[in-house]
Amino acid sequence: QEPPKPRQIVVNASIGDTMVATRAIYYAEFEKLYGIKVVESGPVNLAKLRAMVESGNIEWTISEVGGEEAIRAEKLGLFEPIDRKIVDMDALPSPMKERKVTLARGVYSTALGYRKDAFKNGQYPTNWADFWDVKKFPGPRSLRARAIDNLEFALMADGVATDKLYPLDVDRAFKKLDEIKPHISVWWSTGQQPAQLLIDREVIMTSGWNGRFYKLQRDESGIDVAWGGAMTKIGTFGVVKGTPNAYWGQKMLALMNDPKLQAAYAERVGYPGTHPKSWDYVDKAALKYFPTSPENLPKVAWTSDEWWAENGAAVEERFSRWLLAR
Amino acid sequence: MAGGALAALAARVPSGPFVLGLPALLFLLVIFVGPVLRLLLLSIEGGSLGAYEKALTDGLYLQVFRDTFEIAAIVTVFCALLGYPVAFYLTTLSRTGSALGFACILIPLLTSVLVRTYAWMVILGRNGIVNRTLMDWGMTDRPLALLHNLPSVIIGMTHVLLPMFILPVYSVMVRVDRELLRAADGLGASGWQVFTRVYLPLTWPGVLAGATLVFIISLGFYITPALLGGGRIMMIANVIEHQVQSLLDWRFAGALSMVLLVATLAVQAISNRVQARRG
Amino acid sequence: MRPWLRRLLRGYSLVVFALLLLPLLIVVPISFSSARYLQFPPPGWSLQWYKRYLYDPAWIEATMVSLRVACGSTLLALILGTALAYSVVRGRYRGRVVVERLGSGPLIVPHIVIAIAIYSLFARMHLTGTETGLILAHTVLAIPFVLAVMSASLRTVDPVLEQAAMSLGVSRIGAIVRVTLPLIRPGIVSAGILAFLSSFDEVVVAIFLSGTTKTLPKQMFDNIMNEIDPTIAAISVLQIALVVVALALVARFGAKAVPR
Amino acid sequence: MATTSQSLPLSLAGIEKRFGAVTAIGGVDLAVEAGEFLTLLGPSGSGKTTLLKVIAGFEMPDRGTVRIGQADITRAPPGRRNIGMVFQNYALFPHLTVERNVAFPLAVRHVPRAEIGRRVQEALALVELDGYQARMPSQLSGGQQQRVALARAIVFNPGLLLLDEPFGALDRRLRQQLQEEVRRLQRRLGLTAIFVTHDQEEALLLSDRIAVMNGGAIEQLGPPHEIYARPSTVFAAGFIGESNLWRGTVANAGHDRVTIALDDGTRILAESTATPGPATALVRPERVRLLEDGEAADNRLSVTVEEVSYLGQTQKYLLRSGDRVLTAVWTLAAVAVGRVKAGDTVAVGWQAADVHVIAG
Amino acid sequence: MATTSQSLPLSLAGIEKRFGAVTAIGGVDLAVEAGEFLTLLGPSGSGKTTLLKVIAGFEMPDRGTVRIGQADITRAPPGRRNIGMVFQNYALFPHLTVERNVAFPLAVRHVPRAEIGRRVQEALALVELDGYQARMPSQLSGGQQQRVALARAIVFNPGLLLLDEPFGALDRRLRQQLQEEVRRLQRRLGLTAIFVTHDQEEALLLSDRIAVMNGGAIEQLGPPHEIYARPSTVFAAGFIGESNLWRGTVANAGHDRVTIALDDGTRILAESTATPGPATALVRPERVRLLEDGEAADNRLSVTVEEVSYLGQTQKYLLRSGDRVLTAVWTLAAVAVGRVKAGDTVAVGWQAADVHVIAG
Ligand SMILES: Nc1ncnc2c1ncn2[C@@H]1O[C@H](COP(=O)(O)OP(=O)(O)OP(=O)(O)O)[C@@H](O)[C@H]1O
Ligand SMILES: Nc1ncnc2c1ncn2[C@@H]1O[C@H](COP(=O)(O)OP(=O)(O)OP(=O)(O)O)[C@@H](O)[C@H]1O
Ligand SMILES: NCCCCNCCCN
Ligand SMILES: [Mg+2]
Ligand SMILES: [Mg+2]
């Protein structure tokens, strides 16, 4: 016996193209199946989620959070446990299927995007060492105004192997970041900025979420991605603690775990799904733009959510300080 | 007896106008003063002044405060340099002329800050109009970095605040008694002497009022640095927003807010004092 | 003034006027661009960005939210602010100055401070993310404008007119309704427009209070943060048009729009 | 409008009104008869407006009662007092036509439409403004505005008419014209009227009685010529008209006559019943006459002319006798221009009957 | 400051000034002697201010010349004319102390510090404001402000002093006091002064000569009593003082006497050399006397008293004879209060010498 249907549920998730895609694929399906309106909000914001749960003023039914944030959210008790009877996570690879409160829906990378026309005769950058090499690749660059990913990039640029990153040597990373700082013309803060900066020729290369470059790549619009050292992680959703519509939130998670829908979503925005079966439904032409494609997977590095959950706060503060120092 | 006392009391209770002000007063107390005071309490929760210690001793935040004041000062100076002559020019115009002039000032003033900031992004961008033009004219072969830096933030803020400087200065200027200028003229003063000895001192209160307004509003600016600063120009409001939205550190955000508020009120108070002293 | 000085002054002023208007004018051609991304000058002309705005339910919904919030807060601010202005202008009670300062307080207190203060209050009152919350918060921000314009207007009305009305047989409220308010109608129009625009353009508070209900400026802010596409230009042009219409209305029906 | 007068008497008893530390009215008793035109005259700040406001109900007195006819209206709201008031600058509602201005007090009393029309018509006819119904106040001359204000103040048959410096802002010519009109209308309708001014000429011209106010109290109350000729205080003498005032000591001189001995030994003979003691002698400048050779007068003085001012109808002479300066005003009929010049020494004098003695 | 007068004569020749279609000044010739106090008197819009501005140099005349002493200053800038000006409302610099206000004209002339100090001190002493050096204008009374304005206008030894309605905004009492002070100071320094007013009483009181202006031209120029007693135009007669004016036709009556025949057949006997033809007879109200039984007068009229106004020094009577209304003003010395009441019929009269005939 189902609980009564509310008029609507609210899903908080990333904004931009993914929001449009999520609506078209998941929300539309949900509304069709259950006749409950899905209202979207965004962007992802752990702080707000926490304030909501702590004040009991719950606006969201389910919310997306980044990988390392999922661990903090779980510790802070911001999510309801996942109801395995509704959301069948058994097919997911380990350790995703062991998660208690969040569903890993997709995979995404923070990768190196660049303008092809900024480099002569096919001499494109391939990894973060190239990003740091301002002699060979002169021009303005952009990085995110956060420590996460940037520390890894700096270490890789300094020669650390992709599988030897953790625990991060923070001091070394900052020293390396010092080198590139004068060449960063914009420290981006929202997801669409990197692509936009490239399109507007504000920068020649930048870090950015791969989905944001995906369409540009497919459109052959002169923007491409170097997969070397792309920091890869999972995007997760959970049912917000205390929401009156928890049941329907679980139902939404179930849909998000659906391989067919994941495939449609991946094809549309470039973020591959987590359900192994979703691969079967994806157009093969799209595959090479995914971080998990056979040719990209060996080049990428995986973010340690545990390390960031543990050290993130301190490191982010140090990064802010570093960023503002003159 | 009690009735008489009551009547006497009723006669003493401020009536009429005071009562009409009550709803707004209560409204502001609940939705403005109360929350701000609560924020103050929040920032000293548990009787600890730790948040303030951090705000006032930590090099990072001191730097932000310094930057904020510096930017506000620069913007104020620019507004004064650009605005004073224009305000004066407005006072010399005919009816139609000044109507057009005012349109030039009011339209931007009333247009969304977002729209104006967006427009500067379009103009100053690497691929924007200025760079295009410079490159077309061969004055530079590589686009200049005009956006996402201190100058672009200052340009954007000056654009937003210039009308707020011009209006109070203008309002003082039009109230200057022309007779005084004529008197100075008749008493033998040269044009320059009339300006420095009479006009400038007489319009100084307007300059002070306009500058105070611009400076105070500058201190609390958020949008322009957020959009034009490229993540590198942090003003105190941006830090406060970050504390709340990303770090959820209400205590610290509250402390920063209180410091900002006190700074704002202090600037206002100093300005009032200076103005009062001039009589 | 010497003629050459006059010419210099005029030249200087015209340059400043141009700098004030230029950014707004630049937005116009861009809004009609046929390019997919921001490009200037536009390679060709099209209405695509206007269509994109008008056909996107998210934009339209945000616009409707903004309209409702702006109307609500304008109405509320007009009622509260006008009564407050009356109280301050006509009252003789002690503490009047404090009341006036309080009424114009939201103008001086940085918006970011107001925003987070109200946010923390509303979070407890379950008002974040609601239009009611936005209306209340925007009313706080609009009251100083209404107070300034209406007290200026009220000061032009001789209080003796109210006494005259009272001596002729009405109560104080009757005098206000029958005499004072009709006389300051232009002020009401100006104050209303200022209050409306202050809400319709407000970003900082909206950033904190918007949840599922996003105002247009909040939607624009998110959008600008994300992608500088010409949709914003189209919306900008519509907003500038709104302002010009509002100014024309004030010129026609209102008193001086801006507190002096 | 009933032109039959509903005029009522007004009485004030023990009115006091303080604003913080300032005593604006310090115990005023005043009875105004039905149909009387009473003027409150006094310098700025003497409490005239405050007293009027207490009567009209815009201020509550701290103490005392206000009665119109039999009714105690001390605490009634202004709108219930049935008092017509004409304000300084008239206070016409600028957004209403003449007709709707005059209709206002009737409309707020929910008088039926048809009756309003009739009474407004009557009132406008009375002030000779029929045909101006549709004008806005701004389209009227000052005089016409005043008449509208009057029509509005009387259209609802008030028991009392108050006028607070209605001519304060007018130039002299218009002022004179309107003074006459107000007075005429008030007489015609038999209205009880209280009029406030600080212009002594106006007060003398218009009033049945004048109440001279000073420092929140009534110093003297009486008809104009009495106030002018026999002021009861030095203040009243100084405030109304020009005066020669000399302090001295009264001594009896028999036959209803007294002498006032001044410090310098001068003795002034006066017709008065004043009792011996300190007093002030008042001689109005127009009572001081230029004496022809050998002409006799009860009081006689040889003076040097210090200054002559030509005032048109009259000339004013500043005369010196020792340390004493006195003023004389002579018409051209009495002294031709240029006959008496600055520097001349002449004899002047006045009769004992021309001297008024103010005791104290 | 040299108290030795540097006073210079002023002469205007053929001054014309148009503003677009409006002729503000239409051909004015005027010679003001050194040390003279000349008043421009006229109604609003008659060109008084414009003429003063032309003299001060704030407006350039379209035609004509302005001379001070020997120098033609028609085109000199205001600051070079060496003219002291006292503006309506004084135009004191509100941001400067009294001392620095007075020092202003010296400071801009780069007079040495020490001398400035001395001369400011002298000027302030002259206007009796020594000790007020450090006050701001806002801390002064109206009268004190005016004295500062005066000190500032004379401290640099101007050849000419201009005053544009300096008392326009003051109440009557202060006004009188200041009028006297200005006049005294001007005499003492022997300054040439041109004074603008539209107050006839003020003009009569202060001036050596009065220029009556009307429509941009000078209608009459002469000493006050001449202007009052022998106005050369009906306008001047009506503008200055109250008048009984009757239009009629002059016929010779011998012995420097004429008769003026009015429409209704009344004949008025006048001492005049007027030539036969249309003319207006002027009789000032104070010249109309109450005739005792059997008293004779050159002109005699039986009249009904319509209205009596009590004015203190005088009483004003509105008298009717047929369709003709005339005004008489009598002092109390002549007619005791209440002796002549409204409704009475009395005989009044005036001498032929009391009639002034205005030709045309
Ligand atoms: N609302 C008030 N608050 C404080 N003091 C007041 C107030 N109203 C009047 N006063 C004081 O009361 C005294 C009497 O004032 P009031 O206005 O009655 O004088 P007035 O005779 O009408 O003077 P004026 O001729 O200048 O109109 C003055 O000292 C005045 O300053
Ligand atoms: N700057 C001007 N532009 C146009 N017309 C003017 C100007 N100055 C004066 N006038 C006109 O010239 C005429 C004379 O004006 P002026 O100011 O000299 O009169 P006035 O005698 O000083 O009057 P008032 O007593 O009102 O001050 C008036 O008709 C006036 O309207
Ligand atoms: N911290 C939020 C990161 C959001 C990145 N968007 C990825 C979408 C994956 N479905
Ligand atoms: Mg008063
Ligand atoms: Mg003038």
Automatic annotation (TrEMBL), chain B:
Keywords: Cell membrane, Membrane, Transmembrane, Transmembrane helix, Transport
Taxonomy, superkingdom: Bacteria
Xref: Pfam families: BPD_transp_1
Keyword Secreted: no
Residue ranges of domain ABC transmembrane type-1 in the record: 65-271
Bilayer topology annotation: Multi-pass membrane protein
UniProt cross-references to CDD domains, sorted A to Z: TM_PBP2
Membrane-spanning ranges: 25-44, 71-93, 99-123, 144-170, 207-229, 250-270
GO biological process, alphabetically ordered: transmembrane transport
Compartments in which it is found: Cell membrane
Cellular component, GO, one term: plasma membrane
Keyword Cell membrane part of the UniProt annotation: yes
Record PANTHER family: ABC TRANSPORTER PERMEASE PROTEIN, INNER MEMBRANE ABC TRANSPORTER PERMEASE PROTEIN YDCU-RELATED-RELATED
Family: Belongs to the binding-protein-dependent transport system permease family. CysTW subfamily.
Protein name: Putative spermidine/putrescine transport system permease protein
Source organism of the structure: Stella humosa
From TrEMBL, chain C:
Membrane topology: Multi-pass membrane protein
Classification via PROSITE patterns: ABC_TM1 (PS50928)
Keyword annotations: Cell inner membrane, Cell membrane, Membrane, Transmembrane, Transmembrane helix, Transport
UniProt record, GO biological process: transmembrane transport
Compartments reported by the entry: Cell inner membrane; Cell membrane
Gene Ontology terms: cellular component: plasma membrane
Top-rank taxon, per record: Bacteria
TM helices/strands, residue ranges: 59-86, 107-127, 133-154, 188-211, 231-251
Database matches in Pfam families: BPD_transp_1
Record-linked InterPro entries: MetI-like, MetI-like_sf
Primary site of residence: membrane
Residue ranges occupied by any ABC transmembrane type-1 domain in the UniProt entry: 63-250
Gene3D superfamilies: MetI-like
SUPFAM superfamilies xref list: MetI-like
Family membership: Belongs to the binding-protein-dependent transport system permease family.
UniProt protein name: Putative spermidine/putrescine transport system permease protein
Species name: Stella humosa
Automatic annotation (TrEMBL), chains D, E:
GO biological process, one term: quaternary ammonium group transport
Cellular component, GO annotation: ATP-binding cassette (ABC) transporter complex
PANTHER family assigned to the protein according to its UniProt record, in alphabetical order: SPERMIDINE/PUTRESCINE IMPORT ATP-BINDING PROTEIN POTA, SPERMIDINE_PUTRESCINE IMPORT ATP-BINDING PROTEIN POTA
Gene that encodes it: potA
Organism: Stella humosa
Molecular function as annotated in GO: ABC-type polyamine transporter activity; ATP binding; ATP hydrolysis activity
Pfam families per record: ABC_tran, TOBE_2
Organism superkingdom: Bacteria
Statement: the UniProt record of this protein carries the keyword Transport: yes
Protein name: Spermidine/putrescine import ATP-binding protein PotA
Subunit structure: The complex is composed of two ATP-binding proteins (PotA), two transmembrane proteins (PotB and PotC) and a solute-binding protein (PotD).
InterPro entries, sorted: AAA+_ATPase (IPR003593), ABC_SmlMolc_Importer (IPR050093), ABC_transporter-like_ATP-bd (IPR003439), ABC_transporter-like_CS (IPR017871), Mo/tungstate-bd_C_term_dom (IPR008995), P-loop_NTPase (IPR027417), PotA-like (IPR005893), Transp-assoc_OB_typ2 (IPR013611)
EC number: 7.6.2.11
Keywords assigned: ATP-binding, Cell membrane, Membrane, Nucleotide-binding, Translocase, Transport
Record domain ABC transporter: where: 10-240
Catalyzed chemical reaction(s): ATP + H2O + polyamine-[polyamine-binding protein]Side 1 = ADP + phosphate + polyamineSide 2 + [polyamine-binding protein]Side 1
